[in-house]
Specification:
Chains A, B: InterPro entries: CBS_dom, CBS_dom_sf, Mg_transptr_MgtE_intracell_dom, MgtE_N_sf, MgtE_transporter, SLC41_membr_dom, SLC41_membr_dom_sf. Two copies of one chain form a homodimer. By secondary structure, chain A is mainly α.
Chain lengths: 450, 450
């Protein structure tokens, strides 16, 4: 909360303590819906119960429409209200938000609230609640304005005037035929600037982009972003219009998807915040312990070379240098591959792989030469420098290639490539790097020592 | 490009080859602006020059308004057109997009194009071009609708009808006083549903959220997302309204900022795609080579313990296990801290640090015990297991703390905390882990062996 809002909250509390309905309403209703919901979340249960008597359900609907964040909190509030109040509140809210709240409830609770709704409203909610998470159906709302292509501008304008208060967005007016099939779209701008007697069919744009109700949310977000829409219509398999997805929900999708990618790269869910360190630890440990086993594999591999190590103990000095650098290179190529797979649908996979092979060779050779010189000068031993440099070059090449091949392979298997995390790739590259390093060392040292 | 669009492109090329102006126009103008710009980018210079004779500058303005992506490409196109054509094209485009293109040009080129614009248009562009990148000023456009609070709904509606075609967005009508100061806002919905003789001052919302022209784009994006706006007004230091930022530009900002965070976590720019492996390598090498020096520091540290290593060569087996696992824990806590700092403006820093300290202890102890048991059983040596386990626990604790302290420190210094990358934290933790491991090993082994 901003400081200004913090002060308003204190002032609102004062009006609640004084039971001053009028002053509370004047101040609270001057706030934006989002601010109302921020302040509302700070009140305790006694204060909230007072608010239910101060505000009409229609007024409180704004607060609930703009919360979105936490449907569990919202259903807690619902339980505090008298049932007729809830009925009017849910009836006033946008259907997509009602669905978000009800979807989190137990079936018994959900039935209780559905029974409160008017028949048509309950049906809309029931229709929406069955769509799978992260699809168009789960994001869309049914409060849109649709006219038929036979109407005139004047009659459409009349209809918009009547329906404007209920619609979530009136920027686009959708045109359907008598079967309910989406045939066109016009903007409220067209409505305002054209003459009353002009026909909708003559003005509408017929090339209208719509998404299928089962379409994945990430694809939809990309379309809305590319086309600069503020809403996109949703149709079912029969091309009938069933809803719209508004840009505010698209922004939430974009945020959600990028937070997901970020979390996966880090190997931890960065978004769910807990103030309990045991819970925090519990979220991070599974990946760490899983990778510990992979790390133990690397340890057994080094163990296998213990004879070599005890003979040439200087080799141990460069283990972490090689594994660390190769891991860094692998993380880089992993991130690039994940992003390119996510943003480019028609990517030529072979080109990506070939490019990474070439990049890996260049990076490996340059880094290897640097290491050769550094180690050679430091230890006054060009052979040792050469061994470490050659191992470094090969380890980087392998890690770099693995970093792009793993997400590509996952994509081919139909797994979201972002599950390949930075920690995974760097732990895996520890294994390959050690394998490469000791084999090269053994080979060269045998050659020169014997 | 989708397959459908690919086919349309082929059809359009056929009409161009036949010099069939009418057919080209019919097909091309049926496309959405974004599609037009996608197709347009595929044509060669001869085809483009033909298009300039087929389309009016006003029609081509759509293509340019929806490209956005690449101002350098756009200025290449401008150079191909006759100057009077450019003049009309730039005059028709939204000011923010003209600014994006002109900002990338040399001063001489820019002056040439500015001279083509009408006086008032050129002034608007000049005003906008001086705003710093990533601020409200650089994102806003000046094509918005503003009425005064003295007007009636009817007269405002008249004005909207006249200005609708030029405005980038008519969802919000802004209300200014005679000084140009922003005093209110109403929606086109209000305009449509209220009576013609009602006064704007009676209907408008006076609590209007605006951003300062120098405000950072990330903060603005958060506000627009939280408040579910489709546009936000921009005011200067004197509270005068100077422009609006539309939600499509906000989405680009959100994409840009999250790509930036992702790139930084990976230690590589994942967005700039090059098909030349030398260029790709050049982008990744600086971080790798920088971290190589940090890695060499770790190597010299291990070198310092060479005596211990040659005596107890079994110690080398667990170097990569400890450095790897601590690095993974550090990456996790880094990502969590970066995200929490980015999304939570009023965060209590001490609480975050204390939480990470506690989490680090829990994760360290649990992982340490696992390692103790695993190594103890494997090597049939509980002392060795204890040394490795204790080193693991301490190394994880330190890496975990560093992962959150480094971004917090950077935030305090005013540096964007996302510059702390995963590769950096894991390379740094290699150093601390090795330091901890060998010190613990030396201490215990001296104690028991002597």
């Amino acid at each position: 909360m901003t400081e200004e809002l913090e002060q308003i909250k204190v002032a609102l509390e004062a009006t609640l303590n004084k039971r001053s309905r009028k002053k509370f309403r004047r101040l609270f209703l001057s706030l934006h819906g989002y601010e109302q919901s921020q302040v509302f979340a700070e009140f305790d249960v006694m204060q909230r119960k007072l608010i239910y008597t101060f505000l009409t359900p229609e007024e409180l609907a704004n607060v609930f429409d703009d919360t979105e964040e936490d449907p569990v909190e919202a259903s807690k509030y619902l339980a505090e209200m008298p049932l007729p109040y809830v009925a009017r509140l849910l009836g006033e809210m946008y259907t997509d938000n009602v669905v978000d709240i009800l979807a989190e409830m137990s079936p018994i609770q959900r039935r209780k609230y559905l029974n409160l709704l008017r028949g048509d409203e309950a049906k809309q909610v029931r229709d929406l609640i069955h769509y799978e998470d992260e699809t168009a159906g789960s994001l869309m709302t049914t409060e849109y304005i649709a006219v038929t292509d036979q109407q005139t501008i004047g009659s459409a304008m009349q209809q918009v005037k009547q329906e404007a208060q209920d619609a979530e967005l009136i920027t686009y007016i959708y045109v359907i035929d008598d079967q309910g099939i989406l045939v066109g779209v016009l903007s409220v701008r067209d409505l305002i600037t054209h003459q009353d007697d002009e026909k909708i069919a003559d003005i509408m744009i017929t090339r209208v982009l719509a998404v299928d109700v089962n379409e994945d949310q990430e694809t939809i977000a990309e379309q809305v972003r590319d086309y600069n829409f503020v809403a996109i219509p949703v149709v079912n398999a029969a091309e009938k219009m069933v809803g719209i997805i508004t840009v505010d929900d698209i922004i939430d999708v974009i945020d959600e998807e990028s937070a997901e990618d970020y979390s996966r790269l880090a190997g931890v869910d960065t978004e769910s915040i807990s103030h309990n360190p045991f819970q925090t630890a519990l979220k991070r440990l599974p990946w760490l312990i899983t990778l510990l086993f992979l790390g133990m594999l690397t340890a057994t591999l080094i163990n296998h070379f213990e004879g070599l190590l005890s003979e040439v103990s200087v080799l141990a000095i460069f283990i972490s240098l090689i594994t660390g650098t190769a891991g860094n290179a692998g993380t880089q190529s992993l991130a690039v591959a994940v992003r390119r797979l996510a943003t480019n649908n028609h990517l030529k996979i072979w080109r990506l792989i070939l490019n990474e092979v070439a990049t890996g060779i260049i990076i490996g050779v340059i880094t290897g030469i640097c290491v050769w010189i550094m180690v050679g000068l430091w230890k006054q031993n060009l052979l040792l420098g050469g061994v470490v440099g050659a191992a470094m070059a090969s380890a980087i090449f392998v890690a770099n290639l693995a970093g792009s091949l793993i997400p590509i392979g996952m994509e081919k298997l139909g797994v979201d490539p972002a599950v390949a995390s930075g920690p995974f790739i760097s732990t895996l590259s520890d294994l390959t790097s050690v394998l490469i390093y000791f084999n090269i060392a053994q080979y060269f040292l045998q050659m020169f020592v014997n």
